[in-house]
Amino acid sequence: MNPQRLTVNCSMLFTDLPLLRRPQAARDAGFDAVEFWWPFDDAVPADREVDEFVSAIDDAGVRLTHLNLAAGDLAAGERGLLSHPPRTREFVESIDVAVGIGARLRTVGFNALYGNRMAGLDVAEQDSLAVDNLAVAARAAATIGAQILLEPLSALPDYPLRLADDALAVSDAVRREHRIDNVALLADLYHLSTNGDDLDHVLSRHTGRIGHVQIADAPGRGEPGTGTMDFARHLDTLDEAGYPRWISLEYRQTLADPIAWLAAFTNGAH
Ligand SMILES: O=C(O)C(=O)CO
Fold first, then answer.
1. Which atom of ligand 1 is nearest to the CA of 71?
2. Disulfide: which of 36, 118, 197, 203 matches 192 by Cβ 3.0-4.6 Å?
3. Which among 35, 78, 151, 223 is annotated as catalytic?
4. Could you list the residue range(s) of the whole structural domain that residue 187 is in?
5. What is the ipTM of this complex?
6. Measured from the CB, is residue 78 less than 6 Å from ligand 1?
7. CB of 189 within 8 A of CB of 223?
8. Cβ of residue 111 lying under 6 Å from some atom of ligand 1
9. Is 234 in contact with 203 (CB distance < 8 Å)?
10. Atom of ligand 1 nearest to the CA of 214
11. pTM for the complete prediction?
12. 172/167 Cα distance (integer angstroms)
């Protein structure tokens, strides 16, 4: 694993600190790069909030590799606005904010969570809206050379992307209908493994379509080594397949030292 391609998810790690102090904590732990879920309460935050977020990352001397687009109220179970007709305006307005942040912090990927199925709404209507909204987001991301990412998630019965193939099919639809090719798979190995996907197949056969990888062990979503996943094998598969992009540490801290496991994979360097 290339230690220079590691990024730390500061929405899941360093959560004992206020959000704006986490980039510095990542830097102090030896990382050059961080990522966040949407860090604001609203889809369109005040300029002051955006500036404070950008400064916290800049001042820490790290870059923001990835950012989740506004995804609704996660604590209430929402997971994305992409396919929600009443939220489209909010989603589209948040894209400008996200891309503006990305332009300042060298962001290469924006994770657009798909959104749960909505009771009473036609599935085809939700899917068609998602493809159109993805095209808008992908065009905006392309202005700074970034990708839009689609992430299968586990444990949410109403969230329709569960396997890598589900996300790839949506990416295919965006390409077919809008001739846009910067919508890629976010392979979160924890979610894919929990959903029973074939990680060997996904990582070796779809390498070129993976825009980003996130890792956490399953079960539990803790540090690699705290569950039953074979990280040595999965990370080797990615290396052998020539995966060139970032890998994110996106897990909950359950051990006294949440990054001790890394030394065995990076010869002590990160
Ligand atoms: O909601 C989650 O579990 C995520 O991984 C969001 O990116």
1. 6
2. 197
3. 151
4. 3-267
5. 0.96
6. no
7. no
8. yes
9. yes
10. 5
11. 0.97
12. 9
